[in-house]
User: Fold Ribonuclease from Streptomyces fagopyri.
Amino acid sequence: MPATTHVRRWKTLALTTSAVLVGLTLPAVTATPASATTTSYDSTYYKNAVGKTGASLKSSLHTIISSQSKISYAAVWNALKVTDQDPNNSNNVILLYSGVSRSKSLNGGDVGDWNREHTWAKSHGDFGEVTGPGTDLHHLRPADVQVNGVRGNLDFDNGGGAVTNGGGSRVDSDSFEPRDADKGDVARMILYMAVRYDGGDGFADLEPDEKVNNGSAPYIGKLSVLKQWNEQDPPSAFEEKRNQVIYDTYQHNRNPFIDHPEWVEAIW
Assistant:
């Protein structure tokens, strides 16, 4: 379990009396984050950001999360085997987009393998696989080789046809829609990258926008959709644990939008 204890208050939709009595948990997609959350890091790690909004909050978070350790692209393979381990099978990882549990040993580039998906596509800012944005674990996830190929460098938006073996993900000519259980994860990873990489460290200034077909520009859309996904799919226990492992073991920085999903609205 994560070292931090999160005290979250979520508004739930259509919660029946019987569901309350038996302690049922509604799927995350039916919940939206409350106006504020509290974490044990607020008085330490986030102390210079708490209480701020807009550009001031974004700037403070950039300073906080830019203090990090970096790993090589080759080292990402083994890191993902830890950060994305299947909680029900320690021999497997959970794949982004499809939700499939697959053997850790099947990492590679062949059909049936999993590879390293850059959620913020490498071409959107032309950072490739260099140490920095190209190796940042907060947006790198294991994904099925073929599903990853379908996503390619597409922007994120709603709509399209079903992706084969994509777990409910959809795709069209200019955008990719993850399955419902990964929508919030994708939004928070993209917005982390936008705060962490602002052009001040030799890399492109990454920003979300309201467009698709962004090509090689350092932008990914659509921001309004990403904001909706953040609200519809709050951070899961898996996502929170992943954030903690990256903080404790690898980069020693956090994705603030996992700890404080309401900061998405506070900035954008």
